[in-house]
Every structure is written in structure tokens, then in C-alpha cells.
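Board notes (copied after class):
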Amino acid sequence: KHVDWSYEREWRVHVPLLKTSRAPWYYYEEEAQELFEAVYLGCRASDGFSREVLAARNAHLPKMDIYRAITVGPTMQLRFEKIS
């Protein structure tokens, strides 16, 4: 995360599944839907990854919004566009 955004208090969690021998290297746990209001994808998230996130959302949390960051010109400013 760029230092310009250090004022934001957010959590980024990455837990590798070391015993998984094939893709995808993640799993789905059942969680209460109200815990997940939205997911924000970074501006460098690939189209393939975005499609995977959308598919997971559609299957497990269909009411959750997903936004993708888009850079604004040569600055570090971002705007978020809702994707579906």
C-alpha cells in the first residue's frame, strides 16, 4: 500500500493454504452475509481475478456490492466503479 494512503485504517488479510496442491488456493467458509457489505478490488486486479470474485459473490453473497478502483490521471487518486 502506498504511503499516501497510510491514514486509512483497513485490514488486508492473506492466508495461504499451504497444503492445497491445486488452484484455487483459497476456500470459502460460511459467514453471516451481513458481515460483508462490499468488496473493493484494486486498480491492478486482473479481469480474470475480477470475474472469479464476481462468481464467488454470485454463488455465496449475491447482495454484496463489488467495486473496482480506477486511477484518475497521473495522480494517486482513485475512484471506485461498481461492477456486476
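Comment from the instructor: Residues 3-83 form one domain. The radius of gyration is 15 Å.
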